[in-house]
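This section describes the prediction task in plain terms. A model, or a person checking by hand, is given the sequence of a single protein chain and must write out its three-dimensional structure as a string of tokens. No templates, partner chains or ligands are provided. The sample shown here is typical of the held-out split.
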Amino acid sequence: MSSILTNTSAMVALQTLKGINANLSKTQDEISTGKSIATARDNSAVWAISKVMESDVKGFKAISDSLSLGQSTVTVARSASETVANLLTDIKGKVVAAQESNVDRAKIQADISALRDQINAVVGAAQFNGLNLVSGTEDVNILSSLDRASNGTVTASNITIARRDLTTTAGTLGTGTDLSANATLSATSATNSGNTATITLAADADVSADAFEISVGGATVSFAAGQLTGDQDAAATAISGAINALGLVGVTASASGGAITLTSTRAFESVAVAGTKNGGATDITVSAASIGERAETLTFSGSAAVNEGDGYQVTVGGTAFTYVAGKGENFEDVARGLKAAVDGGQIEGVTTRVAQNSSGQWQLKIDNDSATSISLARAGAAGGEASGGLFGLGGIDVTTNAGAEAALGNIETLISKAIDASAAFGSAQGRIDNQTSFIGKLTDSLKAGIGTLVDADMEEASARLQALQVQQQLGIQSLSIANQQPQSILALFR
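The expected answer:
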């Protein structure tokens, strides 16, 4: 049935043309924007994911800037610490030259002072944007990543850079917890008198048939049977004379009442003692297997921990010397710091050394070779201000024999600290470099992923556009034909 009121064919053609035009409009939008999903209306789920990822990309761009800033800061610190290590090596060369007595030590000391001033200048200038990693002890955090969990929670990750204090500042002893129990003094005074051991010969009216062998400090005196005559007193006198003839440094022997008294004034070295008569220990008695070193010791705990701000003090002859531990230091650092402090005090006749005992405890050894005894005391307290990492550099003085000898050990400690700082900064810089490279690759991957989700396939869109344009033309033709159908009804009325 034909109707002039309802044209079904035109309605179908019109709906078809509307659909074609809608698809054509969408395709044109894809081509003009380059995105298949430009708004939440296009695909809300995919659009939401892409926006979250886009926010992460912006965040990683900020992280890349943070890493660049941190990298520059660490580079400055590493260069400074390497320069300090080189300057300290130059100072060591001057200190070694000062070991020779036939040199102008005053001029050498002037060179050392100039190098020390240069070190202070380098440390003071080693900052980037106001941040100096070679001064102070607080850690520095560099933003390195944003970690998104499966539940959507985002947390920031940091690369922690530990400052390496290369200043020469003296610490300040705190007023906190008493730590004096962590350090034990062997005596309250140090004298220049030596320690002794006694070799006693049993009473014997005739020693002519006896053989003796006495060992002192690795050297041996021997008497075959028939070489000694008389009683035990005469034998002791002869043996003492033979020991003295060895010329052992710091060791002397004396005889009295059939006993040989061995005295050692060696500051930091024990002297082994042994003796036999006729190949055995019968009729000869040795009071000790060795003569202890003359130096008194400040022995630190083998179990207690050292925290930042823990300070220890040793008083030598009424002068107090202090070292306050920095972050990550231990009792070896404390002992070496106190050694540098005492050496810098240049007390006449006083020399020091750092060592470990058989139990692994660190010790500061203090020897007195002056004419009078000196008092010793110790103290310790928490909560102080840490000494600089190069504390003791200012106390290096090679104008005297004792100062030159002490400086040789102290400069090695300072060089080690500067080298450790350079290595730590180099490691941190390497980690930042790796993280920067990873962030760059991660950002590229996220961008590629976002593109896969929302970018339009331009080849497909181009082909689809041409097809839709043809469909649009055909739709218009179909609608035109459908609109002409009612005209045929007019022929029925002619």
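For orientation: The radius of gyration is 44 Å.
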